[in-house]
Amino acid sequence: MIGKALLFLGMLGVASAACDNQCSGHGTCLLDDVCKCYDNWGVGLAHDSGDCSERVCPYELAWVDHPTSSGTFHTYAECGGRGICDRAAGDCTCFDGYEGKGCERTTCPNDCSGHGTCEFIEDMTYGATWNDYTAAGFHELAATFPYKGWDVKKTRGCVCDATYGDVDCSKRLCPYGTDVLDTRDNLLVSQNYQTQNLFLLSGKANIDVNIVDDKIEAGFKDKTVALTFRSKLNETFTTIPIALKYDQAIPATDFANTLSHEIELALLSLPNRVIDGVKVATAYIGVSGDEGAAISINVTFTGDSVQGAQHLLVVEDYECYIGCTPQITGVDLWNRGSLTAPLSTADATLTGRWATPNITDITPDGVTDFNSYECGRRGKCDYTSGLCQCFTGYTGDNCNTLTTLV
Question: How many whole angstroms separate alpha carbon 170 and alpha carbon 335?
């Protein structure tokens, strides 16, 4: 009897030393009867070991949390603090507006309505002027700011397709135009249109650095480029190839006039009459010393559809033969600089360097006698159709045509 009693007490001791539920098969039972759970297993919000029967969900930087005593925010939190953990599956059920394995990133409004792409904040681009672009492969790509905020790779927004706008890209954009009732201070002075200057400096002009014609011919003969125009509706159009040919046996003014006409034709031939009026003035320029040769091109927008300030043109100066369009030879441009000389000057001095063809708005004081308003400020935009509903007395795509005189 004594032996049986001792055996029974021993069995009780073994039973009491076992971990709860044998750690559910997801941990190791320690000598103190406590489970050491495997990774991503535990119990409850505190993730105490318990019987290791519940899953732990992925951790991400918290969108909003309480600061630490040292003032640190955005520490790691389960489901990023923007979701509920399914303890059975170990998956986060994210709140509306968040997604990912740990609810680590935002969704885009209405999935950009099918008319845009959802982009991270650090990938949002800008590109209003020539030096806002960086060379990448064949093309000039809009640059980004070096963003290092805590929400990098987390916060996202819509980048809308051409002709669409608003935060979710749900609205069709309407044409822009000048307000026909705007007045000028001095009607005796000719109207002031926006003029952009394109300055191309060739680095391949080393036949004889003392002969201007040699440098120009060596830099531009048999070379072709193209121009890209971006409308107010964010449509991009690229011209047919434009020949920069030059032959010193023929007067430079003749070639300049021919080039001006070719550029005008190329811009006016863009689809949808996106440019319906333009004037171009061109000059071949020999640059002093061994700096090569340059072409200075003034493009003045005179059409009704391009009134007011326009996006700056982009010069496509890459070589394109196979698998791209338009097919152009490109031109070997110098590590470029800024021109400090009038358009008609046969010689010029370079005072700096740039990384892309220099394109600037040279309109006097940067102000034109025209503006650019949605529906010409004389109508309402129907964001469903992208058509202007003009007020009484106005008509046209952008409501800048008077039908009555008040």
Answer: 42
Instruction: Dump the DSSP string for 294-317.
Output: EEEEEEEE-SGGG-S--PPPEEE-
C-beta of residue 230 within 8 angstroms of C-beta of residue 236: yes
pLDDT tens digit sequence for 348-374: 444 433 334 556 666 665 567 888 899
Query: What would the two tokens of residue 42 be?
Result: 């535990």
Cross-strand pairs, 226 = 316
d(CA 304, CA 301): 9
The answer to whether the CB of 168 falls within 8 A of the CB of 119 is: no
Task: Return the half-sphere exposure (C-beta side, CA atoms, 13 A cut-off) of residue 360.
Answer: 14
Structure tokens at 123: 């990938």
pLDDT tens-digit map of 91-144: 999 999 999 999 999 999 999 999 999 999 998 877 554 445 544 333 445 667
The set of residues, in sequence order, having a beta carbon less than 8 Å from that of 240 and lying 6+ positions away, is 226, 266, 269, 326
From the CB of residue 179, how many other CB atoms can be counted at a distance below 10 Å?
Answer: 20
Given the DSSP bridges, would you call strands 76-78 and 293-301 parallel, antiparallel or unpaired?
A: unpaired
For CA atoms 166, 239, 284, 343, the dihedral sign is: negative
Q: Distance between CA 300 and CA 225 in Å, rounded?
A: 19
For residue 35, give the DSSP letter.
E
Task: Look up residue 400 and give its two tokens.
Answer: 């800048």
